[in-house]
Specification:
The chain is built from 18 helices and 21 strands. By secondary structure, it is of the alpha/beta class. The protein has five domains: about 200 residues, Rossmann fold (3-Layer(aba) Sandwich); about 55 residues; about 140 residues, Rossmann fold (3-Layer(aba) Sandwich); about 70 residues, no CATH class; about 80 residues, Valyl-tRNA synthetase, C-terminal domain (Helix Hairpins). A six-stranded mixed beta sheet has the order 5-6-7-3-8-9, with helices on both faces. α7 runs antiparallel to α8 and α16 runs antiparallel to α18. It is globular and about 85 Å long. This is ATP-binding cassette subfamily F protein uup. It holds the Pfam family ABC_tran_CTD. InterPro entries: AAA+_ATPase, ABC_tran_C, ABC_transporter-like_ATP-bd, ABC_transporter-like_CS, ABCF_ATPase, P-loop_NTPase, Val-tRNA_synth_C_sf.
């Protein structure tokens, strides 16, 4: 027997005083759905999610939740007024005995439930809102950019939680790896229309491109038909005027049909202008030490950055990535050690706090008021890579319309603020590009273009990011900051770092297992039994980890079963063999850990 839908939207229409955001939109969310909600920045993704959550009322149409269905929405800017601590806010709707759910989410998402609301950052508030939603366990979760302000470890925790849940969810996210892992269907908002495909985000780009190709073909056919009919009208209408009025009207209808077609929004006209070449050696850092009180950021850290390098800094939130970045470019002094900057450097900085943007300024003022972009005596022009350009024309290149030019910066979405900051950076030449969390809120098409530009950029790039897909596409060197001053340099991007670190982790795991085996007989038999909170969480997570490792081993064994792989692709064969050994060893260690925890839990 078919189950009733969790949520239905019937013939929804919505405007905000101008063109309709949606018109006649209908969709259904079923039990068990795992849906990616995608579309260009400004296409209405967050608005649609708020309509689904009942926070925005449509002009026309119905939003119908199934009988007894609870719908939970993760707020971007949660209102915490009236609550003393983040934990109090997150546990507001829970029974007193369910506080453990908030504590567990707090551990996974890395926020302190005891943190006073008054001193909490915006990121901590968002994590508390996410923990609240996870703890409430509604039948349908609506998640708007849940990975923003999360580091990679917290993203991995959330990813695993959502994999294991039976709750249906709809996700808006810029994190492709996150969407690929979790979603089984895709809702695509494109020019006010919402299309659905019963495949996850991994199939989205191919589906989108196919639909666009078909659309271009139909437009081409329509244009050819209009051209042919127009030629007939000019050449033969005088002789057949009375008999062919119907054909004339058909031509008018064809022209009206073409006029009614909505043009696709293009990609931002982004361009990186490389200034004069820097010296071959861009940065030389030797023996760096930096600490704040008892916290060590880096110790005895050395790095040489050569012209053209692509370097990524990764690690948990708060570990000091931005601090190290600022030391490398001379904006912050180390407590010990030296940093020497190369010659002829022209630096451009994209900061994660968007501090270069003043929310009270208009977009127009933000560009014309920039000293690097100001054109003397011209209030309506900006200097773009050495050439004057009208400010509205330049904003249009970054997909802002004329009406937005006089709007305040604070009215922009996260993705639009990122585009505005990119417009400021790309207006001037540079040969050293510093990107601190550049991917937050950017749509897929803009991310694609940014990655392509960085690939063709002749200068040097140093970036901080939690976006695994972006790291794999851009970085050639990864610096992993793991706390207590440890910063290790690995070749390659995120996946390469994981593979190399996995070998190190396994060696350490074997040593610790042997040490524990020797120590176990000497332990006091009267020692307390039972599991700590962390051990309980680990025991719950291990079955999924074992299942994942077994699946990866199966795929690698299938790949290596090809008898011609070694001669055809020796490098791929070598990497696959090493990965297989690593995962088999990891599986054995994880199975032993699971047995030990099961025995401890059983007392």
């Amino acid at each position: 027997m078919a189950r009733a839908p969790l949520l239905q939207l019937n013939e929804i229409s919505l405007t905000f005083g101008g063109d309709p955001v949606f018109d006649g939109l209908s969709l259904v969310i079923q039990p068990g759905d795992r849906v990616a909600l995608v579309g260009r920045n400004g296409s209405g993704k967050s608005t649609l999610m708020k309509v689904m959550a009942g926070l925005v009322e449509a002009d026309r149409g119905d939003v119908i939740a199934g009988p007894g269905v609870s719908v939970g929405y993760m707020e971007q800017d949660p209102d915490l007024s009236g609550f003393e601590t983040l934990g109090e806010f997150a546990a507001h709707s829970l029974d007193p005995g369910e506080m453990y759910k908030v504590e567990r989410a707090g551990e996974g998402l890395k926020f302190d439930p005891a943190r006073p609301v008054a001193t909490a950052s915006g990121g901590e508030r968002r994590r508390a809102a996410l923990a609240r939603l996870m703890a409430e366990e509604p039948e349908l979760m609506l998640l708007d950019e849940p990975t923003n302000h999360l580091d990679i470890e917290a993203i991995a925790w959330l990813e695993q939680e959502l994999k294991n849940t039976r709750t249906a969810f709809v996700i808006i996210s810029h994190d492709r790896a996150f969407l690929r892992e979790l979603t089984r269907a895709t809702l695509w908002i494109d020019r006010g229309m919402v299309r659905r495909q019963e495949k996850g985000f991994a199939a989205f780009e191919a589906w989108r491109d196919t639909l666009w190709d078909e659309e271009d073909m139909q437009r081409h056919k329509l244009n050819r038909k209009i051209k042919a009919e127009a030629r007939w009208a000019v050449e033969g209408i005088s002789a057949r005027r009375k008999r062919n009025q119907g054909r004339v009207r058909a031509l008018q209808d064809l022209r009206a049909q073409r006029a009614a077609q909505i043009t696709r929004q293009g990609t931002a006209a982004m361009e990186l202008d490389v200034g004069p070449k820097s010296g071959r050696k861009v940065i030389e850092a030797t023996g760096l030490f930096k600490g704040f009180g008892d916290k060590t950021i880096v110790k005895d850290f050395s790095l040489t950055v050569q012209r053209g390098d692509r370097i990524a800094l990764v690690g948990p939130n708060g570990v000091g990535k931005t601090t190290l970045l600022n030391m490398l470019i001379g904006r912050e002094k180390p407590d010990a050690g030296t940093v020497k900057l190369g010659t002829n450097l022209e630096l451009a900085l994209f900061d994660q706090a968007r501090a270069q943007l003043d929310g009270d300024m208009t977009l127009w003022e933000s560009l014309t008021g920039d000293p690097d972009m100001r054109v003397s005596g011209k209030a309506d022009q900006v200097l773009v890579r050495g050439n004057p350009k009208h400010v509205v024309g330049y904003l249009k290149e970054f997909l802002f319309d004329e009406a937005q030019a006089r709007a305040p910066v604070r009215s922009l979405s996260g993705g639009e603020k990122a585009r505005l900051l990119l417009a400021k950076i790309m207006a001037r030449s540079s040969n050293l590009l510093i990107l601190d969390e550049p991917t937050n809120d950017l749509d897929v098409e803009t991310l694609d273009l940014l990655q392509e530009l960085l690939g063709n950029y002749d200068g040097t790039v140093i970036l901080v990011s939690h976006d695994r897909d972006f790291l794999d596409r851009v970085a050639a060197t990864t610096i992993a900051m793991e706390g207590d001053g440890k910063a290790t340099i690995y070749a390659g991007g995120w996946s390469d770092y994981l593979a190399q670190r996995g070998q190190d982790d396994f060696a350490q795991s074997v040593a610790e297992t042997k040490k524990a085996a020797v120590a176990r007989p000497k332990q006091d038999k009267t020692a307390k039994k039972g599991l700590s909170f962390t051990e309980k969480h680990r025991l719950e997570a291990l079955p999924s980890e074992l299942e994942r490792l077994e699946a990866e081993i199966g795929k690698l064994e299938e790949l290596l079963a090809d008898p011609e792989l070694f001669t055809r692709e020796p490098v791929k064969f070598k990497k696959a063999t090493e990965a297989l050994v690593q995962r088999q060893e990891k599986l054995a260690a994880s199975e032993e850990e699971w047995l030990e925890l099961e025995e401890k839990a059983a007392g």
